[in-house]
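Per reviewer request, we include the raw input and output of the structure prediction for the construct analysed in the revised manuscript.
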Amino acid sequence: FDQDGPEAFAKAVRENEGLLITDTTWRDAHQSLLATRMRTVDMLNISDATKIALRNAYSLECWGGATFDVCMRFLRECPWDRLSSLREP
């Protein structure tokens, strides 16, 4: 995406004949699975294992509507720091 731009990315997705799987576990963790208490440090601690287990996934979604609420109200964390910490360089 960064190298070839959004048009090339969209074209590659449309031309893919295989199954493209998006895992939403981390997104849902903010909202229900872990009772809105999944801290950034917890996510970082399992990120390497997740990277291995889901290496063939199309994408990993970790940002949902409850992200801001959970980070700020319950965990007293910065949602932008969380996203930055989880993004692979």
